[in-house]
């Protein structure tokens, strides 16, 4: 079986979020299971020169973009025996940043069309093309409209994966022909709620639609979670499936991680986490107290991450409990300002660090005893899985991938602490249960070991994708 994985970003070349981790790791895991999976992404200006130096020029072609044609250069790179194709067009991609340009619709229309057009030129006919999120939603749409009846392309199955349904690729109907090159008599495939919706078009035309966790696949059938697409998804529910993401367990491994203060594993975590805690306390000018529990957060400071709940009870939590609280992230001004104020008010108990600091995030995972993720919605979430890997016990709301990866330890078998309602007092109660668990000196090490041995590797996810692909090919 041959798979082409299409993404607008992928590690190690370029990343702005979790999609890049998936596109960098899932194809590698499939390759290890003897699936011929290749990846294609744009060649952005921000791709580092040292990675460019290892690319080989393969071919060039002329790609139709509505009424015009544009140059596309195809470059190939290998990462751990997985082939990556990077598509070059300096007009579209020699710019700062990945997204947010005035002509993103045209940029990703070019990319999506180029992905399909290049296949005969590189002599690679996949059985499956798996597109991801709105930036590549035109891949299944173009395939359905222009290629599915072509002899060379016939028989390819398309899969569309929704990583975050909030971002749907909405544009005015007037650009359907001029930018996307889609005839007006086919506009109905994309048109929804008075505009063009690329994600809606992909849901209509792809042979299979997946999301990044089983719970999220059910949640997006509900208007509360779907950002307006629930009627379409309910109509197409027969093609919808949720597969939980994994994490790169080689990169996120406390026994080899060069970014933490002391390495440890599931057998030596007691000493290792103690050293990491002491060193983080020094770095952040917190009192060096080995027995005080540290609650960590590594998050984007935006509303759907549950920071409204934290804001409501943080004073109570810090006044009435002997804890330390460390948060790292950036985002909305109102939340950054709140945590700055809390840092001044609760000196020696709370430290807020702002920005994207990968090395500090690893140190927080390794040093913290508890890891808080009270998200309003979370399609999959990776932080809770990373926290498990480093023996930081998650406290999560039961939504999306949080529900699928964290089970409450109240029954003596779970790997964290959970709460259901989006309610600050429910969250606070779960935190207090976790603090009581931390105080149990006999039971706590058992929970840490169980958490660290939880299997969230990409291998499990890859096996689920492979089963889905094989079933699709049999249809």
What's the topology here?
Blueprint: E1 2-6, H1 18-32, E2 36-42, H2 49-52, E3 56-65, E4 68-79, E5 82-88, H3 90-93, H4 104-117, H5 119-122, E6 128-132, H6 138-147, E7 157-162, E8 170-171, E9 191-192, E10 195-197, H7 198-205, E11 208-211, H8 214-219, H9 223-226, H10 230-235, E12 240-242, H11 269-283, E13 294-298, H12 307-320, E14 324-329, H13 333-345, E15 350-354, H14 358-367, E16 370-373, H15 383-389, E17 393-397, H16 400-405, E18 417-419, H17 424-439, H18 443-452, H19 458-474
Helix pairs in contact: 1-19, 4-6, 6-7, 11-14, 12-17
Structure description:
It is a single chain. The protein has 475 residues and is of the alpha/beta class. It folds into 2 domains: 2-246 and 459-474, Rossmann fold (3-Layer(aba) Sandwich), CATH 3.40.50; 269-455, Glycogen Phosphorylase B (Rossmann fold). 39% of the residues lie in helices and 20% in strands. It has helices spanning 18-32, 49-52, 90-93, 104-117, 119-122, 138-147, 198-205, 214-219, 223-226, 230-235, 269-283, 307-320, 333-345, 358-367, 383-389, 400-405, 424-439, 443-452, 458-474; strands at residues 2-6, 36-42, 56-65, 68-79, 82-88, 128-132, 157-162, 170-171, 191-192, 195-197, 208-211, 240-242, 294-298, 324-329, 350-354, 370-373, 393-397, 417-419. Strands 3-4-5-2-1-6-7-11-12 form a 9-stranded mixed beta sheet, sandwiched between helices. A 6-stranded parallel beta sheet has the order 15-14-13-16-17-18, sandwiched between helices. The chain has a 3-stranded antiparallel beta sheet with strand order 8-10-9. Helix 4 (104-117) crosses helix 6 and helix 12 (307-320) crosses helix 17 (424-439).
């Amino acid at each position: 079986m041959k798979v082409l994985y299409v993404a607008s970003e992928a590690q190690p070349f370029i990343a702005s979020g979790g999609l890049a981790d998936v596109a960098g790791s899932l194809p590698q895991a499939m390759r290890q299971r003897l699936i011929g999976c290749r990846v294609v992404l744009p060649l952005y200006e921000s791709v580092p020169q040292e990675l460019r130096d290892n690319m080989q020029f393969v071919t060039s072609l002329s790609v139709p973009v509505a009424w015009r044609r544009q140059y596309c250069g195809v470059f190939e790179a290998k990462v751990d025996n997985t082939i990556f194709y990077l598509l070059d067009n300096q007009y579209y991609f020699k710019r700062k940043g990945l997204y947010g340009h005035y002509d993103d619709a045209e940029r990703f229309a070019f990319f999506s069309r180029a992905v399909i057009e290049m296949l005969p030129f590189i002599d690679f006919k996949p059985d499956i093309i798996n597109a991801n999120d709105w930036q590549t939603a035109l891949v299944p749409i173009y395939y359905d409209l222009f290629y599915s009846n072509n002899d060379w392309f016939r028989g390819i199955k398309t899969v569309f994966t929704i990583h975050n349904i909030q971002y749907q690729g909405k544009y005015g109907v007037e650009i359907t022909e001029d930018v996307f090159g889609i005839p007006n008599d086919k506009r109905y495939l994309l048109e929804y709620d008075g505009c063009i919706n690329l994600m809606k078009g992909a849901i209509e035309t792809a042979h299979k639609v997946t999301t990044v966790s089983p719970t999220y696949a059910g949640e997006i059938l509900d208007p509360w979670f779907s950002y307006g697409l629930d009627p379409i998804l309910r109509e197409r529910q027969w093609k919808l499936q949720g597969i939980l993401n994994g994490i790169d367990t080689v990169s996120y491994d406390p026994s080899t991680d060069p970014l933490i203060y002391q390495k440890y594993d599931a057998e030596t975590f007691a000493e290792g986490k103690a050293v990491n805690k002491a060193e983080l306390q020094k770095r952040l000018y917190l009192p060096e107290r080995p027995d005080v529990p540290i609650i960590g957060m590594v998050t984007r400071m935006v509303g759907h991450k549950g920071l409204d709940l934290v804001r409501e009870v943080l004073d109570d939590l810090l006044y009435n409990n002997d804890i330390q609280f460390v948060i790292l992230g950036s985002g909305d001004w109102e939340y950054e300002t709140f945590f700055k104020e809390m840092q001044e008010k609760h000196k020696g108990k709370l430290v807020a660090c702002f920005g994207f600091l990968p090395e500090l995030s690893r140190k927080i995972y390794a040093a913290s005893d508890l890891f808080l993720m009270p998200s309003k919605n979370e399609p999959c979430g990776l932080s809770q899985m990373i926290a498990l890997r480093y023996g930081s016990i998650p406290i999560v709301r039961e939504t999306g991938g949080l529900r699928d990866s964290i089970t409450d330890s109240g029954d003596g078998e779970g790997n964290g602490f959970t709460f259901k309602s989006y309610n600050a007092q429910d969250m606070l109660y779960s935190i207090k249960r976790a603090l009581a668990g931390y105080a149990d000196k006999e039971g706590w090490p058992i929970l840490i070991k169980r958490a660290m041995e939880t299997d969230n590797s990409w291998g499990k996810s890859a096996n689920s994708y492979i089963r889905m692909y094989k079933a699709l090919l049999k249809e």
